[in-house]
Amino acid sequence: MTALTLSTAAASGLRADAIVIGVAKGDKGLVVAPGAEAVDKAFDGKLASVLETLGAAGGEGEVTKLPAPSGFKAPVVLAVGLGALPAKDEVFEGEALRRAAGVAARTLAGAKKAAFALPIEDAEDAGVIAEGALLGAYSFDAYKESAKDAKNAKAPLAEVALLGGKPRDKAYKAEIERAAALGEELNRARDLVNTPPNDLNPEAFAAVAQAAAKEHGIKVQILDEKALTKGGFGGILGVGAGSASAPRLVKLSYTSSKAKKHLAYVGKGITYDSGGISLKPAGHNETMKCDMAGAAAVFAAVVTAARLKLDVNVTGWLALAENMPSGSATRPGDVLRMYSGKTVEVLNTDAEGRLVLADALAKASEETPDAIVDVATLTGAMVLALGNRTYGIMANDDAFRTSVHEIAEEVGEPSWPMPLPADLRKGMDSPTADIANMGERMGGGLVAGLFLQEFVGEGITWAHLDIAGPAFNEGGPFGYTPKGGTGSAVRTLVRLAERTAAGDLG
Fold it and tell me: Which residues form the Cytosol aminopeptidase domain (predicted)?
């Protein structure tokens, strides 16, 4: 992983492959952002004019390279756009800094060291820049032979030195340590999402979780197919029935002796989703290795909470299965008896995520946590509603839904609160079972949320994050977001745990 350091060195004297500075769009043209004063002075105060001559305008994500001025030990200056210049007496938002750092880190792939001279007003700014750099430097090359060719391959940026940081300041050091832990675990979640399904089945995912739990002092319990059968987990077993790879339910428990609250996170972990007997058509199944992104997010959040030693108990539930068609697969029309005892008529085997989540939600509810949050790439309907970069939030408590939304926006994860209209529940009535796994087509994402709500314990605060849009980026990279697995919802879950530990929630 990219190394992080805080430095008080002068920009001119630091040995690095590049110096990263920020530029912004001002009312009268490009403006050099704070942090780059030494570089601008070396250009006799004309750096903005030079950059404008090269076509720079300061737009978000824009990158301009130019030779460093005489006397600098770094050979290159890389100017990255921060977007609009803040109003007088205001500062750049954390997300603008995070995205700029990500763009710079990705642009500098192959470099050994870069000095980041971006605007730093306080320790929090240093933290978001570090976070953006770590996330932007990410690459997934495990399956590329070309990546093993040291001459031609471009390894991720090896080291980031944050100029303007305070190496001896406890707040700054804490922010850098937080960024390192969060960045490493979020990037591990991305690795899991990007891993081909022939190498990441439920058993393999469970093994990764077990190894991480052992490393970070997290208690782990893995229910295999025998334990699931004995326990009556009909939803998880029903989804996994058609696959040669048996399902798993993994419980990760991080506890703190100082904790006053308990959060439960539940993640959908379909390691490959063919749709089952309700087979997905060509063009809709090529990226379905990403259908375990919710479980990856939960896994990363629990491990990050443990690494940060947060004063809150966090339990993660990974509902892992592979949804495949075969002679033993669940059929449309079958009825499953769930862990909660309720029966579900399966009308569509491609609505499988809600089935594994239902069992995990019911099991998590037995411990009566203060709140449950489930995370899932659940419905295409949510993508149609909110697009590819925004996830939907549903909840049985409006105040909690608002809190989760505010936290998501704070950490830079676009989200939107969605309703749970009671009138849509009737569409899931079944003449055969207690409930069907499908309802009205219109509002399908809300129908899925209503289905999940049926399996949450009475009186327990619950939220559902449908990350179907932002979990896997099929387009080009942007900001600190790579192509492929993104690690969506990890930062929201971690900040929720931090807020809960601090007593800011409930």
Answer: 348-355
- State the pairing for strand pair 335-337/313-323: unpaired
CA-nearest of 464, 302, 463, 452 to 376 is 464
DSSP label of 478: B
Of 73, 166, 173, 280, the catalytic one is 280
Do the beta carbons of residue 139 and residue 102 sit within 8 Å?
Answer: no
Q: What is the DSSP letter of 351?
A: -
Could you give the C-alpha distances from 62 to 77, 103, 107, 410, 481, in angstroms and in order?
Answer: 14, 8, 11, 23, 15
Helix axes 170-194, 202-215, angle to 10 degrees: 160
pLDDT at residue 145 in the model: 82
Degrees (nearest 5) of the Cα angle 75, 105, 34? 70
67 strand-pairing partners: 76
Per the annotation, the verdict on 15 as an active-site residue is no
Q: Tokens 């090269």 sit at which residue?
A: 54
CA atoms within 13 A on the CB side of 253: 12
Binding residues for Mn(2+): 268, 273, 291, 350, 352
307 touches 377 (CB < 8 A) = no
State the sign of the Cα–Cα–Cα–Cα dihedral 354, 492, 7, 11.
positive
Asked if residue 55 lies in contact with residue 151, where contact means CB atoms within 8 angstroms, the answer is no
The helix/strand count (H/E) of the chain reads as 14, 20
Per-residue pLDDT tens over the stretch 189-213: 999 999 999 999 999 999 999 999 9
Q: Which of 74, 95, 86 is nearest to 31 (CA)?
A: 86
State the Cα–Cα distance between residues 460 and 34, nearest whole angstrom.
47
Instruction: Locate 53 and state its tokens.
Output: 């001559």
Q: Is 280 in the active site?
A: yes
CA–CA–CA angle 123, 83, 45 (5° rounding): 80
Contact 500, 313 (CB under 8 A): no
Annotated binding site: 268, 273, 291, 350, 352
Q: Which of 289, 307, 354, 425 is catalytic?
A: 354
Name the residue with tokens 């697969």.
Answer: 329
**What residues in the chain have per-residue pLDDT under 70?**
148-153, 506
